[in-house]
Amino acid sequence: MESKIIREKFLEFFKSKEHEIVSSAPMVLKNDPTLMFTNAGMNQFKDLFLGNSTIKFPRIADTQKCLRVSGKHNDLEEVGHDTYHHTMFEMLGNWSFGNYFKKEAIDWAWELLTEVYKIDENIIYATYFGGDPAECLAPDIEAFDLWKQYLPEERILPGSKKDNFWEMGDQGPCGPCSEIHVDLRDEADKKLISGRELVNESHHLVIEIWNLVFIQFNRKADSSLEQLPNKHVDTGMGFERLCMVLQHKKSNYDTDVFQPLLMKIASLSNLSYGKDEKKDIAMRVIADHVRAVSFAIADGQLPSNTGAGYVIRRILRRAIRYGFSFLDMKSAFICNLVQVLSEQMGSQFPEIRSQKQLVERVIREEEESFLNTLDKGIAKFENYIKVNTNKLIDGQFAFELYDTYGFPIDLTELLAKEKGFEVDMTEFLKSLEAQKERSRKATKVETDDWQELFTAQTEFVGYDNLMCEAKIVKYRKVKSQNKELFQLVLDITPFYAESGGQAGDKGWLINGDDKVAILNTIKENNLTIHITEALPIAFDSVLTAKVDENKRRLTENNHSATHLIHAALKKVLGTHVEQKGSLVNDERLRFDFSHFSKLSDSEIAEIEMIVNTKIRENIKLEENRNMPIAEAQKLGAMALFGEKYGDSVRVITFDKNYSIELCGGTHASATGNIGMVKIISESAIAAGIRRIEAITSDTAEAFINCEIEALNNIRQLFKNNQNVFKNVSDLIDENAKLNKLVEEFNKEKAKIIKSELANKFEMINGFRFIATKLDADASTIKDIAFQLKSQFNDLFLIIGSESNGKANIAVALSDDIVKKGLNASAIIRELSKEINGGGGGQPFFATAGGTNIAGIDNTIEKAKAFLK
Ligand code: SER
């Protein structure tokens, strides 16, 4: 069964059981501080389990892109070395939100596996939660009994909390689970040892394929468990593993999900897959990682130096490094795999097809720059080997290679071994631990449990009102880097929470004389959180929530301007322009988009012209808060990949023939409010991604006034001449001509002075002593000194001068004198004491500067005395 059909059959099956089929949420998470990436299908439903959002469909099924590379679920190190773990994988899932529970979950899983997919029931094992006394949790006998209908008891196994109690992270919804495993070994192997002994024992052919979680608890910050008001089902089946089972393969990589990628890697590296285990591992690592990295980039997460971007960069570097070390790939090649991925997965996940070019460019640039760093690191390593003879690589040095040059420790070990060296691992691990501790400290946030005053879901009224009466539903304390803040949830709020690039509202909570400032408003999943430094005194009474209107209006202008610019960019540059990032606050707007070359001045001017025309048309905002997504798409609304939209969406239109976007932000009521747009910068932020920064209304006006004032000041210097550009450029030309004249003049002057000086000498002990004070610049003095020096072979010259209120001296000696052992540099250090200064130079010419002008004569006297 082809993988495409396997996926379809799963969704069809649950559709027939009255499940709503939804699309995958983005793999990169934006509104969840506890997670960077989607690590399970249930992430996007977390709020439904906790009761924070209204349940629209009590039954849902989907295939979800997941990434397990950080936090509680991290499979990165296994990937490639075994044949059934992945960084990115698809999770097929079905959910019940307070609807069906264990019975249906188990019955349907059995029906799908044995009747639809026709898996031999004799190879199936099930596990159930065996209880945990420390948590006061009893064994899940209900699940055990349900499985007994289908399986003999010896194939139903109890499991520990580690295997059979599923938790997403340190906090959040969780519960006991029942896993389905399959034994794919040959009959001969099965006779030797029973599959029962191998379940959950990391055997590559006795593997878990499906996890049925019975969500009924919430894990709190103090690690205690609290019963949820309703019971839910969360199931997750590993799509790639299911394909392995149904395609009768022994490895996920042998299925049609991975084979095309592996074949491409083999052809690019002139090798074959399946010949040499080390090379096979490298090929598997690359095939796996290119999927993770490509989908992350398509979801809007570029590789970078911090947070989620850094995780993506490290995954990509791991792949590059495996290619470099084991496949001898010394130039960029992973970018060439994106094409295969787009052909293979593009129909289920269109984002990879439409952003193929961008993904390729970003990966290529990362590859090139990392290969370059690897080269530098290797040069550094080789230098180290040359100068250190004790055959030991210092742990600190290994850490520097790791930290600065991105060398994983096994690469350093490999290089060391080749040269007969060993790595001091104890020291290395110490440095690594110290670094981890530093970053733990820097990012540690302590979050208390919510203190709930009453139960309610927040109603957002901020599209229409900037002020309302509200009550605090719950609050908690948060401590980060020794700063203590409060987070408050209100029953009704006019405050817009930071999202979609628009900054959160600021404002106040007011009760009589008590006025508490709201510093920011953020979103955590669907929760709107107001951040304050203190709790209102009467925190359980009715308060007035008031948004800072001025800041909000300026922000709205910038947000609406962003839409107008987005549309203009598509018009001027082409439809390949895709939003890649946006930031809108009360000061400015920043817009990142895919485009492959620098914008010319005339393109920028055209964009501004279009946008400012639309502003002058004073187009009224059309806002549709509840449009079915299909209808919005028909209208041609611009949606973003990497954003999660519900089935009905908010649509913002400024002229239906100009700009229609899906958007949750707040906007100017008509484009005229924006006043004007001024683009103040255009730059590149990554391969294929440009950034525009712009300002609007008052800020743009102030900026332009400031520029005009500067221009007027210049005009005045030219007696208000209007053609000031010509004035300035004439001035520059004239200045260049004059400079040349001055230079020639100085040269003439130097010649004359030199001839005069040549006659003004005094012979002292065989030295031709010439001393003078001159009114000339440093280069003229040097010129004179060098001419005299080449004219005489017995010269001792000292010249004093003044410039900008400072004393300068220069000493020049003929080469013959230098040969006798005198040194101008040493002499000037002694002489410069007289002018309160210092200096140096070469044995035949040295200069010094100092603060005491009156001391110049003394230097001359001192030099004379020295010669005598
Ligand atoms: N949440 C469970 C898992 O990820 C089942 O979906 O394994």
Summarize the structure.
This protein has 25 helices and 37 strands. By secondary structure, it is an alpha+beta fold.
Please tell me about this protein's structure.
The chain is α+β, with helices and mostly antiparallel strands and about 850 residues long. Helices cover about 40% and strands about 25% of the residues. The termini are far apart. The model has no long low-confidence stretch (mean pLDDT about 90). Bound molecules: serine. Serine binds near residues 41, 42 and 234.
The biggest sheet amounts to: 9 strands, mixed
How would you classify the helix and strand content by structural class? alpha+beta
List ligands, each type once.
serine
Overall form: globular
Low-confidence stretches: none
The chain-level mean pLDDT equals 92
Count of strand segments: 37
The radius of gyration over CA amounts to 37 Å
Rounded to the nearest angstrom, the distance between the terminal CA atoms is 106 Å
- How much helix, percentage-wise, in residues? 25-40%
Residue share in β-strands: 25-35%
Number of helices: 25
